[in-house]
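so the lab meeting is tmrw and i was supposed to have these ready like two days ago... anyway. pasting both below. for each one the top line is the aa sequence and the line under it is the structure tokens. i havent really looked at them closely yet so no promises
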Amino acid sequence: MSKTIFFNIPAHGHINPTLAVVAELARRGEQVIYYNSEAYRDKISAAGVEFRPYPAIPAALEAVRAAADGDIFGVGYMLVETTRQLLPEIRAVVAQEQPDYIMFDALCFWGKEAARLAGIPQVASIPLFAMQPGVRPPLPPLAQINIVQKSLFTLIDYQSAMRRHRQQYGGDPLGMAGVFGNAGALNIVYTSADFQFHADRFDARYKFVGPSIAVRGGYGDFDFSLLTRKPVVFISLGTVHANRSDFYQACFKAFADHPGLFVLAVGGQTDLSTVPGAPPNFIVRQTVPQLDLLPQVDVFITHGGMNSVHEALYHAVPLVAVPQQIEQAMVARRVADTGAGVAIGFAPPLGKVTAAQLRQAVDQVLADPAYKQRAARLGASFKAAGGYQRAADEILAFAAQVTGAATSHRHA
């Protein structure tokens, strides 16, 4: 049995893809210590691993908020600042625990640095796309303008913070691609090579295992007998950006006279009384069981979060992506580039769309069966990639290599 410490950031989209993987590692006998903020204790502990809380890390939480606001260099600054706050303590933890290898999210600069400074083998967990210097992510020009507008004044803060860190701890300076794509000797990427942009530019250290799609509970009851007509269009902006009454009103205007049925999930934190005026062909709920609903859906209007996009494509559902922040713009662009849907709302500010744009996009996807066919092909690539079991196989093979341990853990 080997021991690992997993350092992750406090965000559902970065934690959720890892849960089945660490649960499988624990099932096969690995000792997994998983660090995150206290708010995620129950979710992570339920995977059967040892949860440990970080001390208060306001900078990491601010990094999540900066990402939501589109301030990309602000994110980088906050990640380096979080590393400054956490590194002394987690270096002490690493020295005490002596893990055989360290796992960290690709944004978790402090995990990467703790492993580097201790000389311990590293495994990166990559819930979005793999990134590395020289491989540009798929961002349209309008989204790049959005980055410049939001991030210009925090660029100097980021560069200064990184310079101070390197003066104290050594190592090569990192540009933004490095901070956002902290890589290890092994890199577990939770998408398929077919969906990854420029997959041929990544070497054998990168394992594209696909998403782990599993039934989730607690996401709201739904009466499926209400789905009385076709097509069914599902609309959701996820959790972080759910409070968008202007967007919902645009949807009402766009589809009030549409023959289809529209299921709108506005988020558990949104009061339904703040979303008035739904036409008769709309079902409006705070939450719905998304994975149960998607097999009944013909088009999904989404914010472009990686988890939601993976789940839709897994069920061969084509997409209309309306990204709300920069990382979602990358996913939305990839959806469009692969032909599994269309992407709108790139002009600053991200996510601002008209009723006419929404109607045109949905009608375009519904009218052309090629969108669904391409979505189905990507979904098949996810299922063939191996999921959490292959991820565990790769991690345990790596652990055996670096520790000389027997390979009896390997999944049959």
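ok protien two:
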Amino acid sequence: MRVLLLGLFFMMKPLLYLSLLSPCFSWAFCFDEAGRFYNVDPQLLKSLVTVESSLKPNAYNENKNKVGEVVSRDFGLMQINSHWFD
């Protein structure tokens, strides 16, 4: 019996790590709720987030001019530009 439980633990361990490291499951609910609230297709929201930030909530990007100076920054899942913060 212990061998069976130990084997089951080692089989489930990778799935546990994947579920903890992948927030996509919890976000599915958020996309549905936001889509319903704003009358937007949840698949469209998820597609935008996937393209903009690869589903990384802490995504950050700096936009530079030809000289290399930072002119604006993009933040978060939807990569909201710092221009809109002013």
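from a quick look at the 2nd one: The helical segments are 2-21, 24-38, 42-53. The first helix runs from residue 2 to 21. will dig more after coffe
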